[in-house]
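Q: Please design a sequence for this.
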């Protein structure tokens, strides 16, 4: 009864299994108990709250769909989505940490790594003993990662890595980084770089107005000697990192719903209690329009995510379908956050309520993992066959 009541206007719970609901409710209870009470202060202080790492591991947020033999939770894609939704109801920055760890670090090691790499890294990443980061974006290559200049040379018994990555979630405290770099032929490969390797540094990026509870930084490589056994052997080319992004973008499509639900729930409660002109503001048509549109958009986003989850479970979700859901659901959430903030009047700008934090967080979410524009162009390419990127 103490649990947050998520909007479920179309009885989507009827489509979930008992296991889905148990997993969701466990994540929901954990967010309420361990994240909600501390997250506002963490965001104000611009500090990632490391104390929540064991809890994230416990609810299965590190590698929800990674097989249990490697320490993962061995769950389906809808469970993964539901966990991301609940975490992002708390904060997009916390969900970022889970997304990066699961889909951008564990996924490539699982899918493209050797058996030795899987056994060495996955159980520790699943338990949170190791934290990971993912280096694709560079200062001069964001939306267009194929132009990356970070590179490695074959030195016989090791590789020599040089270059720099920017805007990397978890970088300041990561133990391992999955880094995308070009070999001497210009082919993109993934390398596992470990903290402590000489020439590897991870300076933090300060003064963000968004995702303040998530640590963001650089990955800098100056003649880093990377052992040959740290190259991911089973896939190369841009399709390798883009495959990881498919999984992370799927999680974000669900996560954004969580942020939107929290904004809607907060605005609805506030509107019923706040009296102006002798009535609750919920009685004014203008406020009802905002709330009615919010629940409509949340419901549409839930349907999109649920169906995408089914397709993903069957391994049938296309990258373009994932792009559509990421783009739609994040825009839905950011619009709801902006409307909900206004509904709280002056109170909406304070940290007493979560809305402004969500709103500012979502400015990153609409930019990372492919910007809003990039995802539109992916849909455009898919439906017309005309490539606007080339
Ligand atoms: P293009 O020529 O289209 O493709 C190159 C190769 O990749 C294949 N491919 C995919 N494979 C798997 N999944 C996908 N989604 C794929 N999309 C394309 C493609 O078939 C091709 O394979 P092959 O074998 O023919 O070589 O590549 P392009 O250079 O034209 O770029 C396409 C574009 C613009 C869509 C892509 O570069 C893109 O998505 N750009 C956005 C970059 C991005 O999303 N960066 C995210 C960085 S990570 C991050 O933000 C983490 S935030 C984490 C958090 O805190 O939650
Ligand atoms: P640019 O690519 O320079 O884009 C600038 C503008 O131009 C955008 O509006 C874009 O939509 C538009 N644009 C670009 N190309 C086109 C085009 N062809 N047509 C039309 N418009 C276009 N990256 C990682 O690798 N790992 C991480 O962990 C990670 N975490 C992040 C955390 C945060 C908080 C942030 C903000 C970013 C993170 N990123 C990460 C980077 C993120 O993926 C990039 O910021 C994003 O891909 C956009 O790249 P850019 O910032 O260089 O913008």
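A: Design:
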């Amino acid at each position: 009864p103490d649990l947050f009541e998520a909007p479920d206007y179309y009885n989507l719970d009827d489509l979930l299994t008992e296991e889905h609901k148990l997993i969701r409710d466990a994540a929901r209870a954990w967010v309420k108990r361990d994240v909600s009470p501390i997250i506002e202060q963490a965001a104000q202080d611009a500090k990632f709250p490391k104390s929540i790492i064991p809890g994230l591991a416990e609810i299965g947020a590190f590698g929800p769909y990674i097989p249990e033999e490697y320490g993962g939770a061995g769950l389906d894609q809808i469970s993964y989505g539901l966990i991301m939704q609940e975490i992002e109801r708390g904060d997009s920055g916390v969900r970022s940490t889970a997304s990066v760890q699961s889909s951008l670090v564990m996924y490539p090691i699982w899918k493209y790594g050797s058996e030795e790499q899987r056994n060495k890294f996955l159980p520790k990443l699943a338990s949170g003993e190791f934290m990971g980061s993912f280096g694709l974006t560079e200062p001069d290559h964001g939306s267009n990662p194929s132009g990356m200049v970070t590179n490695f040379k074959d030195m016989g018994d090791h590789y020599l890595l040089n270059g720099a990555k920017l805007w990397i979630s978890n970088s300041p405290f990561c133990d391992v980084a999955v880094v995308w770099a070009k070999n001497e032929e210009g082919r993109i490969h993934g390398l596992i770089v470990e903290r402590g390797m000489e020439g590897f540094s991870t300076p933090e990026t300060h003064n963000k107005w968004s995702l303040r509870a998530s640590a963001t930084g650089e990955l800098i490589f100056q003649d880093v000697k990377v052992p040959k056994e740290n190259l991911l052997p089973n896939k190369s080319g841009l399709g390798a990192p883009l495959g990881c992004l498919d999984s992370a973008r799927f999680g974000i499509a669900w996560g954004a719903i969580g942020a939107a639900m929290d904004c809607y729930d907060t605005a609805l409660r506030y509107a019923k209690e706040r009296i102006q002109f002798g009535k609750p503001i919920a009685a004014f048509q203008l406020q009802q329009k905002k709330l009615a549109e919010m629940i409509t958009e949340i419901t549409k986003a839930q349907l999109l995510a649920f169906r995408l989850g089914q397709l993903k479970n069957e391994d049938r979700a296309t990258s373009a379908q994932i792009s559509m859901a990421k783009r739609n659901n994040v825009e839905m959430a950011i619009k709801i956050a902006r409307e909900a903030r206004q509904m709280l009047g002056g109170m909406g700008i304070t940290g007493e309520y979560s809305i402004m934090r969500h709103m500012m967080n979502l400015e990153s979410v609409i930019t990372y993992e492919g910007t809003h524009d990039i995802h539109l162009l992916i849909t455009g390419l898919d439906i017309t066959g005309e490539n606007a990127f080339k």
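Q: Thanks. Anything notable?
A: The radius of gyration is 21 Å. The chain is about 50% helix and 15% strand.
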